[in-house]
Amino acid sequence: MKQRKVGSVMTDDVVRVVRTTPFKDIAALLDEHRISGVPVVDDDEKVLGVISETDLMARQTEQTDPGERRHRFRLTPAAYRTAAKARARTAGELMSSPAVTVRAESSIAEAARILAKYRVERLPVIDEEDRLVGIVTRRDLLQVFLRPDEEIRAEVIDEVLVRTLWLVPQAVKVTVTDGVVTLEGELERSSEVPVAVRMTGQIDGVVSVVDRLTSRYDDSRLRPAEASTAQGTVDDWLRSL
After folding, report:
1. Fewer Cβ atoms within 10 Å of its own Cβ: the N or the C terminal residue of the chain?
2. Distances (CA, A) of 92 to 66, 74, 182
3. How many CB atoms lie within 10 A of CB 212?
4. Nearest to 201 by CA among 186, 217, 181, 187
5. How many Å apart are CA 223 and CA 86, to the nearest integer?
6. What sign has the CA pseudo-torsion 148, 153, 154, 155?
7. Pairing of strands 102-103, 122-126
C-alpha cells in the first residue's frame, strides 16, 4: 500500500534549543514563532527532550507557601517533577525526557497513533541516525483528509482492486463522497471481501468504508487443503482475465 510518510507533511525548519538555553529565551522563542513547544538537542542534533507551554507554565502554577513546602515529602512523583520544573532555569532542567519521536519514513497513520497514545501535540522527526530533521503536529497529520475524492477513488481501484485482488477496474463499483468509500459488486471468494474493505480503509484520506460487496463462492468453511485447491483454481481464473 502507498501511504504518505511523515516526511511529506513535516516542517523541516525546526526551532530548537540546547540544554543551556535560558528559560526566558525559550519563552521568547515560543512567542516569536507562535509555536507551543520546542525540541532540545545536543551538539550532534540528537533529540534529548521536548519543552511545551505546559512545562513553562509550571512556574506560574507552582505558587506554594512556606507551610506547603514543609510537606514536600507527601507529594507524588509527578508533583515532584512539576515542582522541579517550577524552579528550572535552563532547557535541560525544564524538558520532558526522553522525547517521544517518530521517523521521517513512518506512515502518517503510525504518527497519529503515537500522538494519541502519549497525548502530545507534536513529535520531533528523526532520521536513521536519530538526528532531528523536522517536526510534525496534529494539524500536519490532518492534511491527509484533504485529499480529493477522485484521487482517493483512483488509488482504491489501482492499489486494492487491480494490484491486490487482480481484478479489472470495472469489477467493483467504487464511489467516494467526502472521504467515505462505498464498495459495491461481486467478488469471486468470500475471503476477498474483508481484504478489500480493510485495505481500502488503510488508504490515506479514507474516513470510513461502506461494504456492499458480495461473493460468488463461500470459502469460509473449507478445510485448509480444500481452501488451497480452491484458491489455486480461482487464482488461475483471475490470471486469465
Report:
1. C
2. 27, 26, 51
3. 11
4. 181
5. 65
6. positive
7. parallel
Say if CB 122 and CB 134 are below 8 A apart: no
Q: What is the pTM for the complete model shown?
A: 0.67
CA 26 to chain centre: 27
In tens, the pLDDT along 82-103 reads 666 667 889 999 999 999 999 9
pLDDT tens readout for residues 5-43: 999 999 999 999 999 999 999 999 999 999 999 999 999
Nine-digit cell string for 214: 458480495
- Determine the Cα–Cα distance for residues 219 and 226; give it in Å rounded to an integer: 9
Using the 8-state DSSP alphabet, how is residue 11 labeled?
A: B
Which residue in 39, 19, 15 sits closest to 28, CA to CA? Answer: 15
| Class of residue 58 by CB neighbours under 10 A (exposed 0-12, middle 13-18, buried 19+) | middle
Contact 142, 42 (CB under 8 A): no
Nearest Cα to 39, choosing from 60, 55, 57?
A: 55
Give the Cα separation of 205 and 220 in Å (integer).
Answer: 31
49 and 96 Cβ atoms separated by less than 8 Å: yes
The grid coordinates listed for 73 are: 515529602
Residues composing the chain: 241
